[in-house]
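Z., the sequence and structure:
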Amino acid sequence: MAKSLIVVGVLGIGALCGLYLYQPSGRDAVNGHLCAEEYSRAKSRIDSLRIDGRPPTGNLGQGEMQNPRLTCGELRRLGKVK
């Protein structure tokens, strides 16, 4: 009985952490960091403009492309790129 309660508790905490990371606000912070790395590698204004128009590379989960993703330029305007 006690073991099953511990297992349920651990699974519940894991599920809550997963839901928190799945929320758009959590993804926006991670994606903003990815965009900041891309902007730091830009060598010219044209490179920055290219980065503005595309979503951050990497960090794609299963089925992620089905949802609309913010571009790096939109994330920067929202203040998510630091």
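DSSP finds four helices and no strands in the chain. The chain has a mean pLDDT of 79.

Let me know what you think.
H.
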